[in-house]
Amino acid sequence: MREVELWQRMEDVLGAGYARVWAENTVLAELGSRTVVQAIAAGIPSKRIWLAVWGQLELPPKLR
């Protein structure tokens, strides 16, 4: 998964205006207690980040 797809998926589920705010402020244990933005900067693969977001938001399996 490319980073652009990660952002698109986040905007799809959180809304374009809120996705970035959520990504900057929500710390995810699955990402080593990093935010999405910090995880991207640390080089964590986008697919792994998305799976952490998916789990945190308790999204339906079809969005996995």
UniProtKB/TrEMBL annotation:
Domain of life: Bacteria
InterPro entries the record matches: DUF3046 (IPR021408)
Name of protein: DUF3046 domain-containing protein
Species this protein is from: Tessaracoccus oleiagri
Origin organism lineage: Bacteria, Bacillati, Actinomycetota, Actinomycetes, Propionibacteriales
